[in-house]
């Protein structure tokens, strides 16, 4: 693929969008990502203070100009009125589910080097997994590698104690920060999301205070603890994949035991080199996984790799194809 060719995530073809300014050379749109969660788990995922009685049944997931309001008039007690004063007829709804929304600003078609300005299907698969396995992330420190526009990190902030949304490049980091601010009502802890620059090709964390996305010493200390790493749609370039795994090893090879969940979409293309349908980026990813499983180091770190079955419930609306995969990498240490 030519570096100047543009690519477009099909996620954006099915989202309701509104124009919302520019980010560098790209026009931005704002999309509404609706998601359903089991009613019994609402308070686990969304802070109780934003789930008031006025919001839960009607407001979430609707356009602002259509949001019903609860009348305070005594003669209409129990009725729900719209902004024109008309009664809103209650429709049948599955009482076992509630719905909420995350707003994401993003670009549409971008060059391959700027794909972080879009949202890709692998991020939605990861978000489904997060919602289905909330207990895995509750009150944990989570590091997302390649956060892009920030969708997964924003959702994680609803359950995790601290989330580090990381990427590289001024434009994508600024966009991620903007989206985090746009959805700060979802976070369950104050300052739950921290946007930081993390270049996989660099050995060190940027601690230059002139960089608005620099790392604090306390941030780096947290990464040495029992954290969870996540990544979505970061496998599309062989050099980038190798840099990704080098960074993963540097973080996960420090005790204690750590986990990495990585979601991706296996993209098939006809290649002239093979004269057949192939997926070289995915094949290289598999090679890197195989190398991890036989890796040994003096400190006794070993890695296990397993594919997570994509049988967990789907809470976001997208086409979950057989080419979407979720993998778990776990580091362990000999006693």
Describe the fold and architecture.
The protein is of the alpha/beta class. It has a domain of 221 residues: 3-Layer(aba) Sandwich (Rossmann fold). The protein is 24% helix and 27% strand. It has nine helices and 16 strands. A seven-stranded mixed beta sheet has the order 10-9-8-11-12-16-15, with helices on both faces. Helix 8 packs parallel to helix 9. The longest helix has 15 residues. The chain is globular, with a radius of gyration of 21 Å. About 12% of the residues have low confidence. GO terms for molecular function: protein methyltransferase activity. It holds the Pfam family Methyltransf_16. It comes from Lingula anatina. This is Methyltransferase-like protein 22. InterPro entries: Methyltransf_16, METTL22, SAM-dependent_MTases_sf.
